[in-house]
Amino acid sequence: MAGLVTVGRFAPTPSGRMHLGNVFAALLAWLSVRSRDGEMVLRMEDLDTQRTSAEYAETLRRDLGWLGLDYDRETPAQSTRKNAYDRAFRQLEELGLVYPCYCTRSQLHSVNAPHLSDGTYVYPGTCRNLTDGERARFARPPAWRVRVDDRQWVVQDWVQGEYRCVLSRDCGDMVIRRADGVYVYQLAVTVDDGEAGVTEVVRGMDLLSSAPRQMYLQELLGLPHPEYAHVPMLLAADGRRLSKRDKDLDLGELQKHLKPEQLMGWLSHAAGLIDRPEPVSPRELTKEFSWEKIRGDHIFADTQALLNMG
Ligand code: GLU
């Protein structure tokens, strides 16, 4: 990609305080961009207006500042982007790939429905070929799906290596707009990353299986594919995934015990970037950073040792 400007992004969901895993992914996203003098974009992913709030968004901006992870611009929050998503929806409709789906949640999750080993539900195409007459008989508003095909997608992930996916087998036709009119994450992310000119997507490994879906939508919408890096998840000592529910590890709590340099040192040591968990600033780390050093598997976080550093 010589000659092209690197553009990365933070795409947090403002539904609570960042936890250790969010900070870890944000640090790596920032280092990847800043080590190549790239541009960093912030975007609030607040499609779920019930769970997100402007207060949390403001706290997130402040927390990024405290961590020393700066950004160059903030693009409009997803809750304000309905027109852009409508345009993309029409574009997909014009390709003849969009159809209404009337399945209820219980139909979709019935025991007969196919599931992958990871629990992902594969849509069997129930409403794919309904006639207009059959559609007219449903009295409720439909969700809208885009048809997928049986090509194999290969994500060349900077951390996880090759990840392969056949959408027709592994996911089925994808919902892009819910019955209540709200656009789904996959479509919104694709449109927003494309419009912001994002060249690399760095996020938690839990979203690896979303990459092929987004690559498919990018192709349909005429958008370039970014590079991908899905970084390891941080696990508690008992193997449980750290999440926003683990209040003890959110940034509010961590700030009471630690200086930002201590937290950065501990995280970059966990990532394999430095030999000892000594205090360090993100700026100093840009010299050490290389994706080759980042391990792909889960990281067990000895959070007690972390808190004891303070
Ligand atoms: N908003 C998502 C999250 O906070 C991240 C989505 C993405 O990076 O594509 O988990």
In words, what does this structure look like?
There is one protein chain. The chain has 310 residues and is of the alpha/beta class. It has helices at 20-34, 54-67, 82-94, 105-108, 132-136, 167-170, 185-196, 210-220, 251-257, 260-271, 282-285, 303-308, and strands spanning 7-10, 39-43, 73-75, 98-101, 143-146, 152-157, 161-166, 174-177, 200-204, 227-231, 234-235, 299-300. The protein has twelve helices and twelve strands. The strands form five sheets. A three-stranded parallel β-sheet has the order 1-2-3. A three-stranded antiparallel β-sheet has the order 4-5-8. Strand 2, helix 2 (54-67) and strand 3 form a beta-alpha-beta unit. The model has no long low-confidence stretch (mean pLDDT 93). Glutamic acid (GLU) binds next to loops.
Q: Give the rounded overall mean pLDDT.
A: 93
CATH topology of the largest domain: Rossmann fold
Order of helices and strands: EHEHEHEHHEEEHEHEHEEHHHEH
Q: Total helix count?
A: 12
Compounds present?
Answer: glutamic acid
- Weakly predicted, low-confidence segments: none
Structural class: alpha/beta
Alpha carbon gap, first and last residue = 41 Å
